[in-house]
Amino acid sequence: MLDKIERLPVRLLGTGHAVPSRVMTNNDFAKYLDTSDDWIVERTGIRERRIATDGETTAPLATSAGRAALVEAGIDPKEVDLVICGTVTPEVPFPATACFVHRDLGCVNAAAFDISAACSGFLYSLITGSKFLQGGTWKTALIIGVDCMSRVSDYQDRGSCILFGDGAGAVLIRRASLSDGKGILHHRMYADGKGVEMLYVPAGGTRRPANEQTVAAREHYLRMNGREIYKFAVSRMQEIIEQTLCEAGVRPEQVDMVIPHQSNLRIIESARQRIGWPKEKMLINIERYGNTSAGSIGIGLDECRKDGRVKEGSLILLVAFGAGLTWASALWQL
Ligand code: COA
Q1: Is 107 marked active-site?
Q2: pTM of the predicted structure, to 2 decimals
C-alpha cells in the first residue's frame, strides 16, 4: 500500500562495473546444443555473454565494481558506512558476499549484508540503502548488484542457459539534503510469492541439501518456466513504469534515460513501444552481456555515465523484475 510519495535524498558519488574476461558466443552453444545464433538473437537479442573463470566469481566481481565506484568518487573505503550486495549467487552460502567486499576493499567502518531479490536485487538494494541513509544514522553506502548466473545455469537446457551471463555493477551513494532536489523521487517494490517456483534452484538449501541424488537430478541448476516468466515480465514492467511516472507526476518525455533490467530484448522493446520512448532513451546492452541478473542495472548505469548518456542533472528511470517473483522501480534525479 502506498501511503505517500517519499523522496529519498541521495547523491550519486560514483559508479563502477566488472565482468569476467571470458566471452561465450551463441555459436559456442550451437557447437553442442540444438540451437543457433539466429534463434538466440531473434528470440532474446543476446549475441554473447561473459562467463566467470576461477578468480572472477561473485565476490571478486563485486569487489572490483565497488572499487571502481570508490575510485571514481575519490572516497576512502573507511568512509563507507554500509555495504549491500544484491545477489542470488553468493560467493559461498554464508557469510554474505557483502562481507567479502567489506574485507577486500577495507570498508572497516561499514555494516555489510546481502539482499536476495534475483534480478531485482540491485533495485531492492539501492532502495534499502537509500532508506538507511535517509534515516540519518549513516551517510555513505556502497550498493552492488552482482551475480554469477553461469554457476547455476544448466548448460544442457537450451531453454535457459543461453540467457544468462555474469557481472557486477556498483553505485556509491551519499545522503543529500532534501533541499538540493536530488535523489530518488519515487520508487516501487513488489513481490508475488505465488511465483516462487517459476524460476528457482530446487536444491542446495535446507529443503534439499546437496547429496548424490540432487546432483544426479541436476537440481542445483536453475529451473525456469520461460513462457510464464515472459508474460509476467511484459505486463509487470509496463505497469510499474506507468505507475511510477504517473504517481511521481512525471511525463515519459521528461525522463532522460531508462535503464531496464536486461532480460530479453523483446520484453524491453514491448515496454518501450507501449510508452512511446525513442530507442535512444532506453539502454540496451543485452547483446554483449545477456541477463546478468542483479548485475545488469548497475552495469548499464555505469556504461551510460561513462559514455555521457547520463550525467549530473539527468532524470533516470531504473526498472527490474525477476525471480521471487519480484519487481521494482526507481525514478532518480541525479
Ligand atoms: N534454441 C532453439 N530452440 C529453442 C531454444 C534454443 N535456445 N530454447 C527453446 N527452444 C524451442 C523450444 O523447445 C520450443 O520448441 P517446441 O515448439 O518444439 O516446443 C520453441 O523453441 C519455442 O519455445 P518457447 O519457450 O515458446 O520460446 P520463446 O519464444 O518463449 O523463447 C525464451 C524462450 C526463454 C527466450 C523466452 O520465453 C523468455 O525470454 N522468457 C523469459 C525468461 C527470462 O527473462 N528469465 C529471466 C527473468 S529475470
Answers
A1: no
A2: 0.97
